Amino acid sequence: MKNMKILNVQTERSPAQAQGYFTFSKHTVKQLRARMNRPTTFRSPFNPGREEKINSVMDGGSALASLIKSALPKMSQLEPLLEALEELGVQNCEDMTYIQESDLLHILKPVEARKLLSCFKSPSQSNVSESCSSSQLSSNNACESSAEISFSDTSSSATSNLVSTSNVGATPQPPDNSWHYNFQVPWKKIPSEIIRKLETGKRPRKSERLEIIRLIVSEILAICPTPGKKHITEIARKMANAYPGAFKDVIEGEVVGSGYDSVTKQLINRVDNVRRGNTPLSLKRQATGSVEDTLCRKKRLNSYGCKNWQPAHLPANETPDTQKCVQEEMKKMNKERCHDTKTIVNMMRATFFTQRQDIINGVDTLDLTQEWPYLFETAGMMAHFKELTGIDIEDKAITNKCARVVSYFKCTDKTAKMQDIFREIDKSSKNVDDVSTAGFILLVLKYFSEREDQMFHKVDQTTLSSEVDCAKLPSTPCIIVCGTSPLTAENFMFSVDQIIVNSRITIFSDALKLMFASYYCLNISYPGDQGATLEFMQRCIFKMNPDKGSKVEKTSSKKQPSVSPKVLSLITKISDFEWME
User: Fold this and answer.
1) Does a structural domain hold residue 446?
2) Are residues 400 and 522 in the same domain?
3) Which one of 155, 470, 480, 538 has the lowest number of neighbouring Cβ atoms within 10 Å?
């Protein structure tokens, strides 16, 4: 087939078509001319007196147009702006550095003009502008050597030509991947009344916080259209360090996670929303690695939150024989029902090394109850937990925090399901501290919509431990409630691996401590259907805030966040509520 020439646009079939020529629409001709970066003049058949100049700068796929799109993602029509820039003499990215805000106010709003100019005048864009100019120059030289658009005999070659020319305007990237270290948070662009609030250490309202996030993400995308999580995390860290009172994740004076997880989450969500339609940032975080990496991650999971997970040496002046003697002495004391708390704690601390060896080596739970009977008593478990994590659990601190969370739910997040719990709290005649602790757990489970029956197994009030059907117990740590509700029951039991390991508990807070501590002492992951509740307890009640890893069991290949978004959201709400009080 002979090469075919492009004729003027026609709305009807002309005699020329019968002679083997092809006619194209106005849009097709304009697209083909622009893709070749070749200036020409197009006469519109609908308005013969009007001529439109089609230049490489008008091409929506050019480097300049791509940068404008990244700076002003909400602008649907770029052609009027590109025409205005051409009239001002702009031929490439470098020319944009000479444009002033007043030059654009006739076509852009003031904020849009500032965003656009900041994109080109930012230091990190200087190399990009130079590369854009050189790429445009080389493409223009290449296009000048072509005299006309022609099509070969095969459609495949025509397609490949169009694809290759369309790649000229690929979105430019920052000159290196460490731009975020030099990124300056645009505090000057934030309204002065919000800045005054930040400087006084006050937390901004939700609407104010969202406005800050929008402004900062706009600045980020102006510099890098495709930021990664590490970039966002570093910027969130800078924000939290600049105004810790406003942005740090803190509850009860304790920093949660890294301290800026909530800001990171909001920035990522905003980036995903602005770039909707492209691959979300959250989908780019798939964990891939070798078998060794998987084993390392598993080990970190087991040792999550622990400071002394696997002691390297026996204590001074201790030998395996002395450890065995102390162990046998504790067995004898347990048979004699000795409950001397101070003696038990000292002996448990002295044999911690040997206890850890047995647990890490996978000794069955039933055997552990026989070899280390005090490990499942409150005093013994708390001694082991303190040696393992370095955290000393104080009963008064727990009850105070539980009462404050219950107060928050009463004032803000009432639901029909929670109303039943509140009525039970008001009717209970038990100790106020015990009622607050039990109410706290029930309310948090309801808030996260997690299964209560996996944490609490209810039996009749007079049921003995030998009468409990252990086959119906969950394999994870569980509190057996001897009654209809933890708020009214007077007796409790505690089970692990469907084995009742403690049948004599009369205080609910003791049962709660045993249940929670056993996840760490026995190397058990949080079950997925209780993960949020247990993580909230871990961070809010027990002050355990590792900034990496997760204790929740992994059910998919997707990488888990170090702090659950649901938990982080509730912590932020409570922090804001306490500040308002």
Assistant:
1) yes
2) yes
3) 155
Query: Do the domain assignments include residue 292?
Result: no
The verdict on 380 and 402 lying in the same domain is: no
Domain total in the chain: 4
**How far apart, in whole angstroms, are the C-alpha atoms of residue 255 and residue 73?**
36
- Which one of 173, 207, 225 terminates a domain? 173
Q: Clarify whether residues 380 and 461 are in a common domain.
A: no
Cα distance between residue 77 and residue 321, in whole Å: 82
Q: Are residues 469 and 570 in the same domain?
A: yes
Sequential DSSP letters for 119-158 = HHHSGGGHHHHHHHHHHHHHHHHHHHT--S----SSHHHH
On whether both 136 and 187 belong to a single domain, the answer is no
Last residue of a domain, one of 370, 388, 406: 388
Long-range contacts of 461-467 (CB under 8 A, 24+ apart): 461/489, 461/490, 461/491, 464/503, 465/493, 465/500, 465/503
Q: Which of 432, 488, 427 is nearest to 458 (CA)?
A: 488
β-strand partners of 458: 481
pLDDT tens across the length of the chain (581 residues): 444 444 444 444 444 444 444 444 555 545 545 544 444 444 433 334 434 443 444 443 467 777 888 888 877 777 778 877 877 777 777 778 778 877 787 778 888 888 888 877 654 444 444 445 444 444 444 333 333 333 333 333 333 343 333 344 444 454 567 888 888 899 988 888 888 888 888 888 888 888 898 899 988 888 888 888 888 888 988 998 888 888 887 766 677 777 788 888 888 888 887 776 554 444 443 333 344 433 333 333 468 889 999 898 898 888 999 999 999 999 999 999 888 999 999 999 999 999 999 999 889 999 999 999 999 999 999 999 999 999 988 888 888 889 889 988 988 756 677 888 998 898 888 888 889 999 999 999 999 999 899 999 999 999 999 999 999 999 999 999 999 999 999 999 999 999 999 999 999 999 999 999 999 999 999 998 899 999 999 988 888 888 778 888 877 767 777 788 888 888 888 877 765 44
CB 310 within 8 A of CB 356: yes
Spatial CA neighbour of 472 closest among 446, 499, 441, 504 = 499
Domain that holds residue 547: 395-580
302 in a domain, yes or no?
A: no
Exposed e or buried b per residue across 176-191, where buried means at least 16 C-beta atoms within 10 angstroms of its C-beta: eeebbeebebebebbe
| Residue 425 and residue 564 in one domain | yes
Q: 490 and 556, same structural domain?
A: yes
The answer as to whether 566 is a domain residue is yes
Q: Taking the model in full, what pTM does it have?
A: 0.57
Distance CA 109, CA 72 (A): 11
Which residues, at least 6 apart from 541, have a Cβ–Cβ distance to it below 8 Å?
Answer: 398, 401, 402, 440
